[in-house]
User: Fold these one by one.
Assistant:
Number 1:
Amino acid sequence: MLDDGEDGLLTAALRALAADGPGEADRDLQEDLRHRPLHVVPALSACRRILYTTKVDWLVDVLGWPDGAPDDVALLWRWSPVGRAHAATLRAAVEALDAPLVFVGDLDPLDLATFSTVARALDGLPVRYAGVGDPWIALCDRHLASGTTLGALCIAMSEPERAALRQAAGIGLDWTALAGPRGMALLESGVKLELEAASNPAFFSPALAGELARLILG
């Protein structure tokens, strides 16, 4: 599993999400994920929001965090879905921080599956999807540089990613509720929109970063 890359992670995550509870379906996911660390940057004052992202480089390059993060915002980041090996640790961290968690990731099947595993691990706690989806895309439209189109920023999905959309629907995952109708239409057309492309200063006005921060922190 470790050598299967993103497609292997996606397959394992969907298999685990399809299971009624922990068991054999989680085994590959757990073994694949144990070595990938969960990073936690606590708030400096009473925590208002916990921002969880799959891409720390995006967090640094676009928002200027963690150094510039508000004092009342905690940051968590980790690349990969959450299996049994990390679920209890993640839940303990969120309970200790005692604030709602907002998830920021790509508009692609892997990060949508990752959100679903995070939400499963934090069942009963306040969790909100704030990754690339319709509200984010609306901001992109408003701040797109002249001569740039949203379609040009999307990239083609692999066949396993396309299949994952069908599998997710088959096991009852409502990714349209996360991505929005327009975001899901992009995915169903066979393309994805990643964080870097949906916030790159080369393609958008400088004001986009501040608006994204407000969208995420609500």
Note: The CA atoms of residues 63 and 213 lie 7 Å apart.
Number 2:
Amino acid sequence: MKEPILISEWDSDSFHKQVLELEGKGYAARPESYRITPVMDPETGEIVHQYSVEMRMLETEDAGES
């Protein structure tokens, strides 16, 4: 079994693009790991959001068969 991949991005478009690319390669997002974390930039006071989710490779039906 492959190790899970953690996607973490400040830009939502980049985040969703990476998720879609991995889904196209057979990965699935773990919905319970999805997070949007607000963070304040100390220099500007602007609130930015960090998006993160864990992706796991889907198990195939014939896994373990020779």
Note: Strands lie at 5-9, 27-29, 35-40, 47-57.
Number 3:
Amino acid sequence: MFTFLRWREWLALKAGALRSGDFEVSLKENDRHLKGTALEIIARTKLASFRSYENGLVDYEVFDTTTSKWLAKETMISVNDGNFEQVFDQFWSVARR
């Protein structure tokens, strides 16, 4: 089971916690057609995006602006209430390097 609105709220709290002098963080919500939530991070050397959809899928990317290379480009990861945080942690471990 994937409780989309629960994880949308969780991402909003996570966005607030990640905001610092090192990261510009924004949270965008889309409620048209397929509902989704995007957490976007701009850092000195990276651009990162984590997107969650009400159908239980997640996409995320991390781009290194100094090397112009993708560090992660993951799509259509199936998530549920039991593994959502783990998938986010995988994203964050690449984004914060």
Note: The mean pLDDT is 95.
Number 4:
Amino acid sequence: MDGSKVCKKTVIPNRSKRFCIFSISHYPQSMTQPLALVYYEKLMPGSQLVNRLQDLNYLVRVVNDLVSLQESARNEGPLLAIVDLAGGGAVCRAIAELKADAATQHIPIIAFAGEQATELQATAQMAGATMVVGEATIANYLPELLNQALQV
């Protein structure tokens, strides 16, 4: 789409006045949907998370590696990022780098991990994750978590 024609003007005659109604004929989908970057290693809950975000009207970009996460965060201006901590320390380093970069430090990051990974969750929190939750929590309370992360 070239974006050259955004509005179509329609004139509707009325008895005493003429009204103009502007209707949007086409527009980029990304203009109406906030972008969420998602990095996950474990298929479940990762794929469920992507589907739930799409159901909540987010445009979702799944990134396959941590370098892509950082590049996408710099270049695409996401509203938030959600990362799976299953990758361990490398994911926590990526969170710290996103928070250290002036171009990406404002992006809220929701990190999730297995319920038993308390040390990893604490490391992600220290790295700068906006919130760190368990896998069950993110699956069951995604809309509430998104609202809370975006208010921070």
Note: The domain at 29-151 is CATH 3.40.50.2300 (Rossmann fold).
